[in-house]
What we know:
The chain is of the alpha/beta class.
Amino acid sequence: MDPVTLKSWRKAERERLIAAREALAPPVLDAWRRRIDAALERSFPGLAHCRLAFCWPIRGEYDARHLARTLRSRGALTALPVVVAPRQPLVFREWHPGVTLAKGALDIPYPVDSAEVVPDAVLLPMNGWDMQGYRLGYGAGFFDRTLASLARRPVTIGISYELARLDTIYPQPWDIPMDYVVTERGVYRRDGEALAYLGEPEMGESSTLASPVCYADEDYFGQTRKSR
Length: 228
């Protein structure tokens, strides 16, 4: 597929898949979110002791904030991506409720002045995905560029729904496949050139132990509860 045709195809597929996701009823999305949370907790116990980057959810994406709160209570340090300049790698800054947020591209919040973090693992939302582990994002290439720039690549866990599975995204040389994909169905691991469905394995990727942190008075969405 030539570059112009591929760009047009990816744009059309992205719009189609986002529309399908946004058409889902909130109870369905919440049920799938809970199933994904459970699969991540059970299959990747190391996430509770690592520097974990995740993305603020938009447009019906999986909402990792619930899981992030749980993991912080167990010792994880969580971070959000920050766009520093067009066509440049992202940086990650620590985030927990109480850290100041500003609105960035696509109105996505990002931490303003917290410490930069080099993540051990990244939970990465996917508009679409294929059985080679490649991700259809929003077209700017930020995450591929970022992963390629890091001296030590974090474990990448793509998060999506089964309805977003494609035969292929027609990956290009710069596209980086996910190490794992997790959907409401369960866990896939990239073995060789393709994903293998694992269901709900007992053990997952172990991660570097991070300094314990705990924010007992937080809610899910970055607001601090008033003292009682």
